[in-house]
Amino acid sequence: MNRHIRILGIALMVCFIALFVQLNRIQLVDQEELQDNPNNFRKIERNFSRDRGSIFTSDGTIVATSIEVDHDLERERLYPEGELYAHATGFFSFQFGADGLERQYNDELAGQTTGQRFESFADLFRDTDTTANVTITLDHGVQQMAREALGDRKGSVVALDPRTGDIIAFWSSPSYDPGLLGSVDLDAALAFWTELDGSARGEDPRLPRMYREIFFPGSTFKVVTAGAALQAGVATMSEPVFAEVVEYVAPLTSLPLRNFAGNVCGGDMLESLRRSCNTAFAELAAEIIGPGPMIETAEAFGFNDTPPIDLPAAAASNFPDDFGIQVNETDGDPPVPIVENTPALAQAGIGQNDVKATPLQMALVAAGIANGGIIMEPHLMQEIRDQQGVLVDEFEPAVWRSPLSSANANILRSAMVTAATSGTAVGLQVGGFEVGGKTGTAQVDAARPDETHAWIIGFGGPPGEDPTVAIAVVVEAVPDGVQQTGGAVAAPVAQAVLRAALQASAGS
């Protein structure tokens, strides 16, 4: 009998241990996966049926909030500015979950972090509103200007403070009204979702193209190539001097690479950057810098990595990291390896081939040059406070990348000022401020030469002081449309937004 009791006791103990392990696995290990499961409608409904904090811009504009409604779900998520902030806030939907800031800071908005739920021992015994409001770095006036300046064209605008990483404007067109997805009218929300799903390929308004889509950056990438030359010590702004030519033929190919519109172009690196000479920068990358320093500098700027923005699913920008094995070397001093894919390296040096970047990444390139060679982490959250005004969290500026020495960053910064004073970026000038820029015209497909993305990157600030705003604008190619250039198409958009941002910065 005692033996049977011992066996039963051991069996019960094993079952208890197994139950204990499984319970802890569910509560601790699998908790996040189970909570985020799209089939977990109980969590979604519970989130909808309880209080949720609001989202405000830095100047106090409400961009997301909740109201009580006469419905089983009890509350409805509203977005008072409609499409204007959709790609920042994302949406909070009973049927489709959440995206953007709504997803990133869901626990804080819903009051579900441990610190919010249990601020004191007394909170264990009372039901209080633990939700928090999120204040973001976007400036309402500058965001409105980004939408207005871009108009109905397809494209993106990113403006940020290079000193802190604060994002000031974050706009992509086309956009959508997230309130239609947050509605308690579930039939209407489903109909709208279905409509968005049916959008033309590449035209889905839900896609925040400024940080989740990559494009050929074209000649805006030449500042990275120039930075690689300076960092490697193989060129200065005055040496070498490139021949004034119409086209350049890289080693190991017979196919020429031409300057825009068949222009004759050349000179030293400063002049070549001012005039945006394809031939000079292609030769610089292929025969003077070489693959190693080009890859190293591109990655130091953040290519082939995901920027640490506080939004979900950011895209990594791309720079090729394999140009094949060495086949010979140049006659230069020092010699540069000529590799199997040197023609591709020449194209990469001018932002084509397999080079692709998000508008956010190119804004960070401009910010790094403006900020003495240091790229700060880009972010939208400024601070989070509970309903009593107590600080829950705030963003602490942090360095993400240091691609350039301060000396080389200042050299490039001065060169970009020259490009905005008397070069291709003159359309970026803002009266009363010192501005620098670099334009780009990126061919989408060699078979369709007139389909081009129009780019510009730049920065601005009070004369003689550090820049306070960095910017990137891309106006996307129009199928079967006329050729767009960065100077003619993107520069006026960037100038309007840069002016608004600089004036807002000067007034703060």
Description:
By secondary structure, the chain is of the alpha+beta class. 36% of the residues lie in helices and 20% in strands. The protein is built from 18 helices and 21 strands. The strands form seven sheets. A six-stranded mixed sheet has the order 3-2-1-6-16-17. A hairpin with a 7-residue loop joins strand 13 and strand 14. Helix 11 packs parallel to helix 13, helix 11 crosses helix 14 and helix 11 packs antiparallel against helix 17.
Quick rundown:
The chain is built from 18 helices and 21 strands.
Topology:
Elements: H1 2-29, H2 31-36, H3 41-48, E1 55-56, E2 62-68, E3 75-78, H4 86-89, E4 92-93, E5 97-98, H5 100-104, H6 106-110, H7 114-117, E6 132-136, H8 140-150, E7 155-160, E8 167-173, H9 186-197, H10 209-212, H11 222-232, E9 242-245, E10 247-248, E11 257-258, E12 265-267, H12 269-275, H13 278-289, H14 291-300, E13 326-329, E14 337-339, H15 342-348, H16 359-370, E15 375-376, E16 381-386, E17 391-394, E18 399-401, H17 406-422, E19 434-445, E20 448-461, E21 469-475, H18 486-507
Parallel strand pairs: 1-6
Antiparallel strand pairs: 1-2, 2-3, 4-5, 6-16, 7-8, 7-21, 9-12, 10-11, 13-14, 15-18, 16-17, 19-20, 20-21
CATH superfamily annotation of the domain at 212-380 and 397-507: DD-peptidase/beta-lactamase superfamily
The helical percent reads 25-40%
For the CA atoms, what is the radius of gyration?
27 Å
CATH architecture of the domain at 212-380 and 397-507: 3-Layer(aba) Sandwich
Q: Flag low-confidence runs.
A: 36-41
Shape: globular
Oligomeric status of the shown chains? Answer: single chain
Distance between the termini: 85 Å
Beta-strand residue fraction: 15-25%
Average of per-residue pLDDT values: 90
Strand order of the largest sheet: 3-2-1-6-16-17
* Structural class category: alpha+beta
CATH topology-level fold name of the domain at 212-380 and 397-507: Beta-lactamase
Main beta-sheet annotation:
6 strands, mixed
CATH top level of the domain at 212-380 and 397-507 is: Alpha Beta
The tally of strands reads 21
**How many helices does DSSP assign?**
18
